[in-house]
Fold:
Amino acid sequence: MESVGVGLIGTGYMGKCHALAWNAVNPVFGDCPDIRLVHLAEVSEDLAAAKARELGFEKSTAAWRAVVEDPQVDVVSITTPNAFHAEMAIAALEGGKHVWCEKPMAPAVADAVRMRDAAVKSGRAAVLGYNYIQNPVMRHIGALLEAGEIGAVHHVRFEMDEDFMADPKAHFFWKSEAASGYGALDDFAVHPLSLIHTLLGPVSSVMADMAKPYDRRPLSDGGHRPVETFDVASVLLRLESGAAGTLCVSRSAWGRKGRVAMQIFGSEGAILFDQERMNEFQLYRNQGHSANQGFSTILASPDHPPYDRFLPAPGHGLGFNDQKVIECRQLLSAMSGDPAHVIDFEEGLAIERTIHAMARSFEEGRWADVPR
Ligand code: NAD
Structure:
């Protein structure tokens, strides 16, 4: 590939992150094709035109199909609310485009299956926005686990918490609607599951509980509306590896701003990580005299590639958006048919099946197997 034409649908929180990543990927990595920001879609012509100017796109439209049908577009970033992902991703793949779609795949597992099938049929790269697997520290933790540095993993604890819905006065919005999925499972649980899949392998069975801290929320233009999604979920896990674990997620956890925390316990040690301090992790090894044993804190450095592509100095730190730049570089590898560290639509479907098993477990009040 000498050059890549980019389309973008949706320019909110994640749309800007994708646009920044497309702008940065070549300056950071220096080994990519020429990136051309071709066509951007938003809900109105005015908003689309303003965002195209801001983000550096050549053309704008209020009709997203114009992006997926544009012959100058090779890859489409889909950063719209969950309910739109399936239709947009399938149309893009059927139009011969590569796809970079935000998580989750789709609220209905049948739509996630259709997305996977469209990806397989197209032969195009179809990559999901599971950015936390791209943190150089996380890549290093994966290497440590692979090398058996903490022995055989027998117990894991994962959490993802934020507080953007903690205030009972927070407005009802698209994440409160059933059309977006179950709630915290689709919005949050999928992220720790992307880490579990990448570091430890798939989940085999689950036992879940879900909760709605607030039954109704105020509307921005007055009145109230019943909340249709669950902001909280607590899940017991069994991994295919045999390890046991827990996964707890909340969008209503006051004080938690971007917690994606994990504790991994093995026969020879333990590893701790929290995304709120994404430039460090803690390692415990059962070595030496017990009087001197304790966790060591290891700071991100150029020895954790591709940190070195951003900074030559250790301990200075990367940020959330840098993970997106790395994800973008991996997507370009996938588009070239090279090995890529990504969650594609096949593995994404396994994650979707896992959250649907959690919802089934909650509805039936018992353990549920995750279908393969
Ligand atoms: P957002 O509301 O900030 O942005 C969505 C944008 O899509 C809005 O600008 C909206 O106008 C636009 N849009 C809606 N319908 C459209 C249409 N038909 N055509 C064109 N544009 C349309 O939402 P967000 O927080 O950016 O979430 C978007 C997606 O990103 C969700 O699926 C969410 O789960 C995911 N997300 C991922 C992460 C992550 O860490 N990977 C973080 C936040 C959100």
Summary: The chain has ten helices and 17 strands. The two ends are 35 Å apart (CA to CA). The pocket of nicotinamide-adenine-dinucleotide is lined by residues 9-15, 41-43, 64, 79-82, 84, 102-103, 129, 131, 187 (CB under 6 Å). The chain has two domains: 3-131, 132-369.
